[in-house]
Amino acid sequence: MTTVAAGRKINWTNTLFIAAAHLVAVGAIVWMATGHFYWQSFVMGLVMLELCSISITAGYHRLFSHRAYKAAPWYRAILLIFGAASVQNSALAWSRDHRRHHTFTDTDLDPYNAKEGFWWSHVLWVLHDAPEDHVAKGPRVTDLEDDPLVRFQHKYYVPIAILFAAVIPMCLGFLWGDPIGALLICGFLRLVVQWHMTFTINSLAHMVGTQPYSTRNTSRDSGLIAFVSWGEGYHNFHHRFQADYRNGVRWWQFDPTKWMLWTLQWVKVVSDLRRTPDATIQRALANPRHADDAPRESAPTADAVGVPVAASAD
Ligand SMILES: [Zn+2]
Ligand SMILES: [Zn+2]
Q1: What is the pLDDT of residues 191-215, one digit of tens each?
Q2: How many Å lie between the centroid of ligand 2 and the Cα of residue 14?
Q3: CA of 175 to the centre of ligand 2 (A)
């Protein structure tokens, strides 16, 4: 038990659901290994993993939390649907936590403070309720509260999640005679795999890798972690330039979320992709310690997240 966990109440809903989902995910593997393998269910699980993962990286993270670009309403609606099916809370609640992470990185007010160790930042923080005053001290999310699509998803998050993560996959499974397998694979095995992909950003991306852009917090760049997280592993760059639509800033760095957004701008689905000027990036590379006269690119400003924020720990 970490020190921070000792003072907090356990969130039993999250704890029991996450524990049960892991057991059922193991059941999904046993189900497939004992003569119930249907390639259609497996492929649907992979497609679902891709849709849900991209909804977190391109949607919850870069669009809703950081306002790194603008997007058409139908595209935002799809991200909100599969974001809900990712069972990581509503976009509003997720972004509120994430803005707090950037504003108060590595402090007690950071919901997944990496200095509390791997297990706290990976999953234990989800199993505990955050103190009310911590949430109140965080950056505002009025821009999201004013968005009708985000508000709708926040209000109906649970039914949307059940419908798209469980009911629809199960119905599709009937088409090839494997409704139980479709539910186990799409609803649970996919969910558990995806959780750990996301959780890795909060844990390992603050522990493994290099710090070329900033040594002022624990965030790190790692191509390996980028590979298992749809490009989010270039986390040191991201912490310094959080409003940039790219996490892997070099064209060759593995960041499928960046490549997708870059492609979608050509067909006018997304627009106003925000890029940090090269000269600013070079200044950061030359001075990762942020001397006093260096620009504070990593601080979450009103411009970076679309709203005024309370304070910065960086
Ligand atoms: Zn971080
Ligand atoms: Zn972020």
Answers
A1: 999 999 999 999 999 999 999 999 9
A2: 23
A3: 40
